[in-house]
Design brief:
Low-confidence stretches: none
Shape: globular
Number of helices: 11
Order of helices and strands: HHHHEHHHHEHHH
Number of strands: 2
Mean pLDDT: 86
Structural class: mainly alpha
Oligomer: single chain
Largest sheet: 2 strands, antiparallel
Length: about 300
């Protein structure tokens, strides 16, 4: 039973990271009907930004907790700026173009950011310091769940609650919901759609950066390619839960995390990615819109 709980909490940790990235996918799709395939690279850039800040502050002798908080803050700001700029350069000019054009632009931006970081940094894996301290009250349970996993789960929960509050009770949140429902009507009633779309990219990039910092600190290494794998997994989670649905993105991420964890623990770790995609295919055969997604008829 203890092994089961260990796998359960491990899957919860994985799912929490996937959720932080999947939120960006599902928010952007819900508002502009675009799959932002460069979103995983924002996650990667957040991790690299944090590593640079950590290296500088460590040489200056700063406190470990302060280093982690400042590095995460800088990563969020820097990644949000990337998300905002990416939307203005790669996607805004193509809003009235066919969807395929925006999709190709997203893939091109993903490749550009990968190679940009490759040339600016290195193709090798770089060590990332584990800055999350070991909590004393966690010592009796360290064999089941460690302090880094607990911090990841708590942080993700706080982000989810904050985002839910933002969407439901703030002015920008109401504008986001109006734009997602009918962009043209939202413009007619005075909603600044361009601002709403920019804020969506900024918020999605910020959550991805938080995930990048947390998972890099937990795993202990990064390279320029980590965004591609994490991005694909998060995209799978968003589709599984229902692309465009924020609760669906969270649910799909948790299901994917638990699926991978239990399959790895009880069957084999060699095919965990294969099993995850097979699971996705099976779900979509019986529920094409995803678990919480709603099928919509496209106007012609």
């Amino acid at each position: 039973m203890e092994y089961f709980f260990e796998l359960f909490l491990g899957g919860l940790t994985r799912g929490s990271i996937y959720a932080l990235i999947a939120l960006g996918y599902t928010m952007v799709y819900g508002i502009v009907q675009l799959i932002n395939f460069a979103h995983g690279e924002i996650y990667m850039i957040g991790a690299f930004t944090a590593l640079i800040v950590i290296s500088v502050l460590t040489m200056m002798g700063w406190n470990q907790i302060a280093i982690l908080l400042i590095a995460a803050g800088v990563a969020v700001i820097y990644s949000s700026a990337y998300g905002y700029t990416m939307e203005k350069i790669a996607y805004k000019p193509l809003r009235q173009a066919p969807r395929l054009s925006a999709l190709i632009s997203a893939i091109g931006m993903s490749l550009f950011l990968q190679n940009y970081v490759l040339l600016a940094q290195t193709s090798d894996f770089l060590p990332f310091p584990g800055l999350i301290p070991d909590f004393e009250f966690m010592e009796p349970y360290a064999h089941i769940i460690g302090s880094p996993e607990l911090v990841i789960i708590i942080t993700t929960t706080i982000v989810m609650i904050s985002l839910t509050f933002l969407i439901k009770f703030t002015k920008i949140g109401k504008a986001m919901r109006a734009t997602a429902q009918d962009r043209d009507m939202a413009m007619l009633v005075g909603v600044d759609v361009n601002r709403v779309i920019s804020m969506t990219f900024i918020i999605g990039s910020a959550t991805a950066a938080i995930g990048g910092v947390l998972i890099a600190s937990h795993i202990g290494q990064i390279n320029f390619y980590i965004g591609f794998i994490a991005g694909i997994k998060a995209f799978v989670a968003a589709v599984l839960g229902g692309i465009g649905s924020i609760p669906g993105a969270v649910l799909g991420s948790l299901i994917l995390g638990w699926t991978e964890s239990f399959f790895t623990g009880y069957i084999s770790s060699d095919y965990e990615d294969v099993f995850a995609f097979i699971f996705l295919v099976v779900i979509l055969i019986f529920r094409p819109a995803g678990i919480l997604g709603r099928s919509t008829a496209e106007k012609v």
